[in-house]
Amino acid sequence: MINQIVYVDESSYTAIAEARNAYDKLSTEDQAKVTNYSTLTAAETSYKAILKQKQTDQYKALKAHYDDLLSDKTKKYGTAAKKKLASILQQAQTDMNSAESCERVTAIYEKKLLLISML
């Protein structure tokens, strides 16, 4: 499984998670025989950095859309609508920060963007 991790990018979550699960299921004795464990840990570290950047970028994009909506003079948002927009944005940040994969971050972004755009 670890041998299947060649390059780490946004779509690597499943391969890394499967390799980790397979490794963790091995006995301690069999884990000691794994010669490329450092490949797995390096991939996990790289993916965490990619995920963190994805979370940051997607939140910033959503926040920019939120800011654009509120600054659009052609739209008038009442207090309740503004609170709802802020609540959606806050929940998006919480959800994105707890996401384990870049794919999940993107799904959250797309859902919250749609919700914000519908108000």
The biggest beta sheet reads:
none
- Percent of residues in helices: over 70%
Assembly category: single chain
Number of helices: 5
The H-and-E topology, N to C, reads as HHHHH
Distance between the ends:
46 Å
Shape assignment: elongated
Number of β-strand runs: 0
Task: Please identify the structural class as seen in this structure.
Answer: mainly alpha
Q: If you average the pLDDT, what whole number results? A: 96
Radius of gyration: 20 Å
Strand content: under 5%
Low-confidence stretches: none
What does this protein structure show overall?
The protein is mostly helical and 119 residues long. It is built from five helices and no strands. Helix 1 runs antiparallel to helix 3, helix 3 (37-71) packs antiparallel against helix 4 and helix 4 (79-98) packs antiparallel against helix 5 (102-118). The longest helix is centred in the middle third of the chain and has 35 residues, at 37-71. The termini are far apart.
Can you give keywords for this protein?
single chain; about 120 residues; mainly alpha; 5 helices; about 75% helix; about 0% strand
SSE inventory with pairings:
Blueprint: H1 13-25, H2 28-32, H3 37-71, H4 79-98, H5 102-118
Helix pairs in contact: 1-3, 3-4, 3-5, 4-5
